[in-house]
Design a protein that fits this description.
CATH architecture of the largest domain in chain A: 3-Layer(aba) Sandwich
Order of helices and strands of chain A: HHHEHEHEEEEEEEHHHHEEHEH
InterPro entries (chains A, B): Aminotrans_V_dom, Pser_aminoTfrase, PyrdxlP-dep_Trfase, PyrdxlP-dep_Trfase_major, PyrdxlP-dep_Trfase_small
Pathway (chains A, B): Cofactor biosynthesis; pyridoxine 5'-phosphate biosynthesis; pyridoxine 5'-phosphate from D-erythrose 4-phosphate: step 3/5; Amino-acid biosynthesis; L-serine biosynthesis; L-serine from 3-phospho-D-glycerate: step 2/3
Structural class of chain A: alpha/beta
CATH class of the largest domain in chain A: Alpha Beta
Shape of chain A: globular
Keywords (chains A, B): Amino-acid biosynthesis, Aminotransferase, Cytoplasm, Pyridoxal phosphate, Pyridoxine biosynthesis, Serine biosynthesis, Transferase
CATH superfamily of the largest domain in chain A: Type I PLP-dependent aspartate aminotransferase-like (Major domain)
Strand order of the largest sheet of chain A: 1-9-8-7-4-2-3
Number of domains of chain A: 2
Oligomer: homodimer
Pfam families (chains A, B): Aminotran_5
Number of strands of chain A: 12
Enzyme class (chains A, B): transferase
Chain lengths: 368, 368
């Protein structure tokens, strides 16, 4: 029913979505059952949409294991907007520095936006080492006075992922989980604010999920434009002004797929680990032909970033992989190389196909 | 092929879209021809998407008759975000007041957001008259010192529409055209900045078109978060951070439909005027059964807002219209009553069906 190529999409984002979700969205673009009209023509003030929001809030809270003190917000503007909204809310007017950890391309983008709002301190910076590893606990010294700490759980460009929670329990933790959100279980109640744009694991671009604890949005802060005010958005259940109805509905369908088809985050994690093992296994067994970029302990389960012995070979790899039906395997434009992003919707079967292709490409290249 | 009910969607927004556009989007959710993958899985850094942006910028400039001094931006956050971005850019730090005209619900929403950024002066306010008419030129006195003037070309809630350009040529004109954008030709080069969210005439919710003159974004202004900086967005051709690819592509398809299927804005205007004539004609011929809300001279060609002799009859009208396959005919929650929104994608045939229904409803109600 579906076309093969969707399943072979290894793009860094916007990424692959589950086939069943794409099929349902395709049908409902013409007619949503029970309503008779296209999903694009449904009012955001309809009962139908209120139920979509409500179910999605519940699903996200359930998947993350969050209590009722957390608000689930569905905002526009991507993680980039959160780079600013977080310090506008928590840092503007403060005299003590918020603490940031710079582990790669995206955490580096968050820092200048925060500096516009107040004092920050970068407590660890991996630039000197070329962002090929993450800090150990010994390298991180968190201050009890910081208004919050900020880090990124998974760096998509460099392929680095934290497998632990950072920071101290007496300082609010803020985490950008854009590229590993809903990919594995975790102790999410240790965070005060988590944000994630949708276009990696949970939907199309144009929608960003924010989960934020009550007390963070209740505390006094600078007067902000309404659309940048978490409290305004929370009160309105993300329907303060017209939200992106289609994108929100797509995220709802992905959470249903996670809960019903996959069976929850523990199952999702098992699948994701198997996919990563397959790819890193081949890389490690390739006698140095495929070179993983990140240090082994810090490798991302979402973005497998690697190089070949020459630029010429990398170019040929991309061409031949495209000819074989794969897409999205070029590395991020900031660093080049190759990258296989294996977000939730990429299947084990698709990864097996990629591993077979990579194995054949290696043997052929070495023989020549 | 299509279902009847999409064509009978008179929602105030998100509104109806052309059937041909819905069909194409439905197919391309599975597979975009030539790429083989779902539109939701295509990278925003792909050549394909660069061409989408480029064609869309050209189409909008061509439809509006704008020269190359105008940038076409595709932003998130709706008109609400523009309520803030405009004064952040043009008013923050200024000592002379920007001039706002308050003609209804939506222009009223823009004012408090502007006040957060600098001094403003409301030079006309229709509240006392219940927002049932627009100001005449005699009632408007514009200052030559204002950093800009701001007004809304069409008030969707009250059904009021300006049929002329306001302001002075030596002061930048800023206009929210969210609900009549690309519905008729005009002298758009007289504006310095025009913004319009998509979900009325040109696409799904989640995307906002801004056209802005070079000199407005080149002049010095307060340092802003990158995503709120028109200049950053213009330089990046709206691809500064991941944009809503699907929504932008939908808008492109609507502009193609406007150019190729409809034949441009003069033709579109002819169709829109015919639709409005049909509805207002029935209202005016109903012996006061249907009561148009706006004064005749200021009636909107996009939103036909009216009342019935009693709340009871209005309720019955909504129920019976839904049973007959129509949707979206309830008035805005702020004022109640009834509203038929006849945006570009609503056909003359659909309006004829509505007029027939309204005619029958009137005769039946009067007879009882």
């Amino acid at each position: 029913m579906m076309n093969l190529q969707n399943s072979l999409n290894f793009s860094g984002g916007p990424g692959a979505l589950p086939e069943s979700v794409l099929l349902q969205l395709s049908e409902e673009l013409i007619q949503v059952p029970g309503l008779g009209i296209s999903i694009l023509g449904i009012s955001h003030r309809s009962e139908w949409f209120a139920e979509v929001i409500s179910e999605l809030e519940d699903n996200i809270r359930a998947l993350l294991g969050l209590n009722e003190k957390y608000h689930v917000l569905l905002l526009q503007g991507g993680a980039t907007q959160q780079f600013s909204m977080v310090p506008m809310t928590l840092l503007r007017g403060k005299s003590t520095a918020a603490e940031y950890i710079q582990t790669g391309y995206w955490s580096g983008k968050a820092i200048p936006e925060a500096k516009l709002e107040g004092p920050i301190r970068v407590i660890w910076n991996g630039r000197a080492a070329g962002f090929n590893r993450l800090p150990t606990d010994d390298e991180l010294c968190f201050s009890p006075d910081a208004p919050y700490i900020h880090y990124i759980s998974n760096e998509t460009v460099e392929g680095l992922q934290f497998q632990r929670v950072l920071g101290r329990d007496d300082v609010p933790r803020v985490c950008d989980m854009s590229s590993d959100f809903l990919s594995k279980p975790g102790d999410f109640e240790r965070f005060s604010l988590i944000y994630a744009h949708a276009q990696k694991n949970i939907g199309p671009s144009g929608i960003t999920v924010v989960v934020v604890r009550d007390e963070l949005i209740e505390q006094p802060h600078a007067e902000l434009p309404s659309f940048l005010d978490y409290k305004t958005q929370a009160k309105a259940h993300s329907n303060f002004n017209t939200p992106p109805v289609f994108a929100i509905y797509a995220v709802l369908l992905v959470t249903r797929w996670l809960i019903k088809d996959i069976g929850g985050l523990t199952q999702m994690d098992r699948i994701n680990r198997r996919k990563a093992e397959l790819l890193y296994g081949l890389i490690d067994d390739s006698d140095g032909f495929y070179q993983g970029r990140a240090e082994t302990a810090d490798r991302s389960l979402m973005n497998v970033v690697f190089n070949l012995p020459s630029l010429e070979l990398e170019k040929r790899f991309i061409q031949e992989s495209q000819a074989a039906g794969f897409s999205g395997l070029a590395g991020h434009r900031a660093i080049g190389g190759l990258r296989a992003s294996i977000y939730n919707a990429v299947t084990i079967e698709a990864v097996e196909e990629l591993v077979n292709f990579m194995d054949a490409f290696w043997r052929k290249s070495v023989r020549n």
